[in-house]
């Protein structure tokens, strides 16, 4: 899974953590070489990681407003991406997805219970430092 943070400009490592905000700019720290760096355009350009994530959720039947709430991305942006990339959702959506946001420990506990996963279409996607589980109750396909 790609890092949601920019790579280190010094050693190109993906192992990056947030390290405070300096003069309105997000500061990052490289865990590999310990180099601190800031990124100019935070908030202006949205990481392509989130574009893909938003479109994934859209295809899974999550509404624009819910995507906005979950990812913190304006539903107008998401609508524009759907148009730009010509995303079409197949009409045969017979079930409304349900989803939950879990941390890693909760995710492990959740999937360890058979009743939580049996008979359910399931998709787990990384969401910042948490995980999102999208499920559909078993439906009949003709
Ligand atoms: Zn580095």
TrEMBL record:
Biological process terms in GO annotation: DNA transposition
Q: Where is the Insertion element IS150 protein InsJ-like helix-turn-helix domain?
A: 53-86
Which superkingdom is the protein from? Bacteria
Looking up InterPro entries in the UniProt record yields: Homeodomain-like_sf (IPR009057), InsA_N_dom_Znf (IPR003220), InsJ-like_HTH (IPR055247), Transposase_27_IS1 (IPR051354)
Q: Which residues form the InsA N-terminal zinc ribbon domain?
A: 1-33
Which residue ranges run through the membrane? none
What is the recorded name of this protein? IS1 family transposase
Source organism per UniProt: Lacihabitans soyangensis
């Amino acid at each position: 899974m790609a890092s949601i943070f920019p790579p280190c400009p010094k050693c190109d490592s993906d192992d990056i953590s947030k390290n405070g905000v300096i003069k309105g700019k997000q500061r990052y720290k490289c865990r590999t070489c310990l180099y601190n760096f800031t990124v100019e355009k935070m908030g202006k350009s949205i990481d392509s990681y989130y574009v893909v994530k938003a479109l994934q959720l859209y295809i899974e039947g999550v509404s624009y407003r819910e995507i906005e709430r979950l990812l913190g991305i304006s539903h107008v942006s998401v609508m524009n991406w759907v148009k730009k990339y010509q995303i079409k959702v197949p009409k045969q959506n017979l079930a409304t997805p349900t989803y939950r946001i879990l941390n890693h420990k909760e995710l492990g506990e959740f999937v360890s219970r058979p009743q939580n996963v049996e008979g359910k279409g399931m998709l787990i996607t990384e969401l910042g430092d948490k995980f999102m589980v999208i499920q559909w109750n078993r439906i009949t396909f003709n």
